């Protein structure tokens, strides 16, 4: 392997992004395992993706901020729904999460099937972009990660089921954008 060919300007922001994601996802992942809801991240990410597809369908593809707002809003609504379902039927929570994931994926595909550029948008949603991360692009993720860690450890949101779902929705959405 030729280490001289490695480009620090490309790799260092990606490495920093990985560390930021790691900082928020380890404590949240421990809570996920403790709760036994291991597919929650997939469902929340899929719901956020559905929010992006809905925003695109409504003509919001030109604004990156509108896309972010749509993704976070959808993820928060999904998290609130799943929190409510956990309270009403804890024994079925993992099954409900699975059905939610599949339903969000199906709705996104149905919406994109009516778009002549749907295949390209689907590709954008599915392909990771971590290698093309820039230092300036990491600022929002760093802010979200810092706020999430303060809420989790400082404000003790880890002791609140609703706080867990809200933080999970926001951090998962921020990390996949």
Structural commentary:
- This protein is 77% helix and 0% strand.
- It has 177 residues and is an all-alpha fold.
- The chain has one domain.
- Helix 3 runs antiparallel to helix 4.
- It is built from 7 helices and no strands.
- The radius of gyration is 17 Å and the shape is globular.
Summarize the structure in short:
The chain is built from seven helices and no strands. With 177 residues, the chain is mainly α.
* Approximate shape: globular
Total strands: the figure is 0
| Radius of gyration computed on alpha carbons | 17 Å
Q: State the helix count.
A: 7
Biggest sheet overview = none
SS-derived structural category:
mainly alpha
Distance between the terminal alpha carbons, to the nearest Å? 31 Å
How many domains make up the 3D coordinates? 1
The run of helices and strands is HHHHHHH
In percent, how helical is the residue content? Answer: over 70%
Fraction in beta strands: under 5%
Low-confidence stretches: none
Provide tags for this entry.
177 residues, mainly alpha, 77% helix, 0% strand
């Amino acid at each position: 392997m030729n280490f001289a060919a490695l480009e620090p300007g490309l790799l260092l922001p990606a490495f920093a992004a990985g560390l930021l994601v790691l900082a928020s996802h380890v404590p949240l992942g421990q809570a996920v395992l403790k709760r036994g809801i291991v597919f929650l991240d997939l469902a929340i990410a899929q719901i956020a993706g559905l929010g992006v597809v809905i925003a695109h369908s409504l003509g919001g593809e030109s604004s990156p901020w509108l896309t972010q707002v749509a993704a976070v809003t959808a993820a928060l609504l999904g998290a609130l729904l799943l929190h409510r379902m956990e309270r009403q039927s804890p024994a079925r929570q993992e099954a409900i999460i699975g059905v939610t994931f599949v339903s969000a994926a199906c709705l996104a595909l149905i919406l994109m099937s009516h778009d002549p550029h749907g295949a390209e948008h689907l590709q954008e949603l599915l392909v990771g972009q971590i290698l093309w991360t820039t230092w300036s692009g990491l600022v929002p993720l760093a802010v979200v990660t810092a706020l999430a860690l303060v809420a989790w450890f400082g404000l003790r949101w880890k002791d609140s089921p609703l706080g867990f779902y809200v933080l999970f929705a926001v951090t998962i959405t921020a990390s996949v954008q």
